[in-house]
Amino acid sequence: MTQPKPPIAMLAELTHRCPLSCPYCSNPVEMARQDSELATQDWIRVFREAADLGVLQLHLSGGEPASRRDLEELVAAARDAGLYTNLITSGIGLSERRLRALDAAGLDHVQLSLQGTTPEMADEIGGYTGGFKRKMQVADWIGQIGFPLTLNAVLHRRNLHQLPRAIEMAVEMGARRIEVATVQFHGWALKNRDALMPTREQAAEATRIVTEARQALKGTLVIDYVPADYHSDYPKRCMGGWGSTGLNVTPEGLVLPCHAAQTITHLTFQSVRDASLSGIWHDGPAFNAYRGTDWMPEPCASCERKTVDFGGCRCQAMALVGDASATDPVCVKSPHHVDLQARAEAHAAAEAPLVYRTAPGRRVEEPAQ
Amino acid sequence: MDPHAIPVLPRGVRLHHDRVRGTWVLLAPERAVTLDQTAHAILSEVDGTRSLSQITATLAARYNAPEAEIAKDAAGFLGALCDRRFLDLAQEDAPPPAR
């Protein structure tokens, strides 16, 4: 195998702690506890190693990254290392004072999640009373400070009808971009497929709305769209190809090719506590397991799309057909495709209550003003 | 694109020298755009005060190239950045937008 190109992006999961308990949380079912999280100085060293390795974009995520009291210090250190800093947040845990401190630290961009467009919907999905009101206040401060903003709306059967309003809200907030992401089923979210799976009709309607809005809002709002992939005929180009463009560091310092990779239990993951980021990226067994195309079985190996989608999502192949090297069953060429479509229809027709996730440790207190 | 418009890199979009790959990139929210020499030359002239026509004239003089050709290249490249919200346009007598 030739030497891999350097990664462009790193997702730093600073903590698994989060005041919300969204049923579609993609974090692992077993979450890292606060006392196992990397310390400030560890993260700062990892940011420098990432910049030296070629990472340009740093996504600070979680859990809720604002649950880390050292977030401002981490942002300043990341900027100092030369990284572009993106904060992926629900807004809960951010006060105006903290946002201004993040501004002073050099934070480049904020991605704000949206659980719904009304307090009733958002608070029900997030499992946090008052969360929507708080988020709107945070959005206002973000606008006043002038941070570039992306709104991130996760859509599923219960809130897909709110998509037009979500797009309007992005424009009203002055966001330059909205990510319209149909729910993906990884981690905790797998427990909620019966409650959240959109119908095929809803999925088609979302695509229509996005297509029209892109046209109408050209030059005003960029719309990134993740379609409902159980209802698709070709799989997503997961991570741009395994081990090709991005890497993920968990709260305890494990380095993963994607944030769900721990569900592939036969892989061995290394920690930034024991090895350099460069060593892990270039030589780590987990990164080399599905890098490139040599690992592919049929029908991927002879497929003309193999460098288009790289066989889709390894974690999804693992979760749905029990084999991480299988063709993503979303693909029409997979022998499991017909079965998956039937399962998707069944999930979409099912009635089920939301199964909220519970966070490790205590709830995050709102900061005093 | 209006030749009198003033291209402005909005907050959160910046030129960055990628020392690992030995190239210039435009860093924007959750995106990095690799710049070739022409793209880098055009963006290096974007200072938030000069109009597209002034930038075009500067580049034409510096590279001893036909101004119409440079104008076409610059408008195409900068227009695509506008569509992605990586670039704002201000008018000559208006202050640049806040974001």
Shape of chain B: globular
Beta strand count of chain B: 5
- What is the helical fraction of chain A, as a range of percent? 25-40%
In order across it, which strands form the biggest sheet of chain B? Answer: 2-3-4
Radius of gyration of chain A: 20 Å
First-residue to last-residue Cα separation of chain A:
55 Å
**Helicity range of chain B:** 25-40%
Numbering strands along the chain, what is their spatial order in the largest sheet of chain A?
A: 7-6-5-4-3-2-1-8-9
How many runs of DSSP E, i.e. beta strands of chain A?
A: 9
Order of helices and strands of chain B: EEEEHHHE
Continuous helix count of chain B: 3
Write down the overall geometry of chain A.
Answer: globular
Unreliable spans of chain A: 361-369
Q: How would a textbook summarize the main sheet of chain B?
A: 3 strands, antiparallel
Mean residue pLDDT of chain B: 92
Which structural class fits the helix and strand makeup of chain A?
alpha/beta
**Mean pLDDT of chain A, as a whole number?**
93
Protein name (chain B): Pyrroloquinoline quinone biosynthesis protein PqqD
Keywords (chain B): PQQ biosynthesis
InterPro entries (chain B): PQQD, PqqD_bac, PqqD_sf
GO molecular function (chain B): quinone binding
Note down, in words, how this protein is organized.
The complex is a heterodimer of chains A (369) and B (99). Chain A contains 13 helices and 9 strands. In chain A, helix 1 packs parallel to helix 2 (71-80), helix 2 packs parallel to helix 3 (96-105) and helix 3 crosses helix 5. Chain A is of the alpha/beta class and 369 residues long. Chain A has a 9-stranded mixed sheet. In chain A, helix 6 links the parallel strand 5 (149-155) and strand 6 (177-182). Chain A is globular and about 55 Å long. The longest helix of chain A is centred in the middle third of the chain and has 17 residues, at 200-216. By secondary structure, chain B is α+β, with helices and mostly antiparallel strands. Chain B has 3 helices and 5 strands. Chain B has a 3-stranded antiparallel sheet with strand order 2-3-4. In chain B, strands 1-5 form a two-stranded antiparallel ribbon. In chain B, strand 2 (14-18) and strand 3 form a beta hairpin. In chain B, helix 2 crosses helix 3. Chain B is globular.
